[in-house]
Design brief:
Elements (H helix, E strand, L loop, with lengths): L23 E2 L9 E6 H8 L19 H12 L4 E2 L2 E5 L2 E6 L1 H9 L4 E6 L4 H4 L17
Parallel strand pairs: 1-3
Antiparallel strand pairs: 2-6, 4-5
């Protein structure tokens, strides 16, 4: 069995290298034409600073921002390497917001992942594109298993 800790590498990859979670289930959005992006979790964390529902550190987590049962379920699913639903992000007034998947994102961050696949509607893609590493910006992330 693999061991994990809050900032460790679950799959034994070298620290500092990009670490992507590879198993996703498709998520529906408001649009039939969904856009998938590979976002940098550090950029996402920074973009969500100041959002009253975002609590990516244990210090910020309370009954309003954190549901232990959702986090525990996401953590267990990720640790066993099973597929998770793709987090759904959007934007409002030019700011990033999470529509669905906050606890999956918390678990991925706590397990040391650096990147995550997200889904959004086409009209939010320009804002969320700021969370994509420059090397990834030219790639088509809509092609997925």
């Amino acid at each position: 069995m693999e061991s994990a800790h809050a900032h460790g590498d679950v799959h034994g990859k070298a620290q500092g290298a990009a670490k992507d979670y590879p198993h996703y289930l498709n998520t529906t959005t408001q649009s039939e034409e969904r856009v998938y992006l590979r976002v940098n979790l550090t950029l996402l964390r920074n973009a969500l600073r100041g959002n009253s529902l975002w609590a990516d550190t244990a210090f910020q987590r309370d009954d309003e921002t954190f549901k232990a049962w959702k986090y525990d379920g996401a953590m267990a699913t990720i640790l066993e390497g099973a597929p998770i639903y793709t987090p759904w992000l959007g934007s409002e007034h030019g700011r990033v917001r999470i529509v669905d998947g906050r606890h999956r994102l918390y678990a991925l961050i706590d397990l040391g992942y650096s990147h995550v696949r997200i889904v959004t509607d086409p009209w939010h893609a320009p804002v969320l594109g700021a969370l994509v590493d420059p090397v990834d910006s030219a790639k088509d992330h809509n092609a997925h298993p």
